[in-house]
Amino acid sequence: MPALKEPARQFAWDDIRLVGAVAEARGLPGAAARLGVDHSTVFRRLNQLEAQLGMPLFERHRGGYAATPAGEEMTALAARLQEEITGLTRRLAGQAPLPSGEVRLATSDSLLDALLLPMLVRFRAGHPQIRLDLVTGNAALNLSRRDADIAVRATDAPPEALVGRRLARIAWALYGAAETSPNPAEADWVGLGDNLAGMKVARALRDGVPPARQAARFDGVMGLAAAVRAGLGIGHLPCFLGDADPALRRLAAPEPDFASDLWLLTHPDLRNTPRVRVLMDSLAQQIGAVRPLVEGQVSRD
Length: 301
Prior knowledge:
With 301 residues, the protein is of the alpha/beta class. The protein contains eleven helices and twelve strands.
């Protein structure tokens, strides 16, 4: 077998790229199309390279070209060099790969409808390559099992297995329908049902208001807000919902005992995933901008 002569001075990127293209296409026509050259050019250059090396890079079969061990090594080198060249080009151009893919976001219906939706619209305008999968409800989700990638939750005790940021303190205040301007001392009350009995605001209705004045209870905040808006009764609502709705009127200052922290959470394994990180950063910034509303510091009265 002839000795290899000065390969370091004779190899070129075009030679290595040609081998990679033939291996990927498993034949000359496909490689020629990838490289933008004639079939005969690929045939000639491959023969020249094999002659230079003194060994075959591919075995020719009816089903196509299969790389020999030497061809596999050069193909792997071609992949590494292509990755390095692509990375260098992006760095020099100042263009990092754009985050893309699907992000599953879990939150409650009230947070989504009254707070997050406009933020998600703005986020999508800047990141149309990211698809959102929204999951609403008050049930706890296991981010370790990919029930969700990100959770926006009201809680004073976030799971220790998750990481994230405390964004604000959600304030709750007493509201009534703006048109009727009810007197709290005389009005009927509405509140949250037994499914949310773990919340202090839900227990307050059950324990602090006589049954005769409890007009209705609801299994979600959005239903409760609609009842207050319709005049069915007065009730406590999150300030980000009540103060932003012109059909509602705040009847008292926020009740500190009903407040809870607003958390933006993810699993540690996901926090550096580009599509997850960019959405978390966007939500953190946008929620921070409306923190006074969330904390009940903005009122029309």
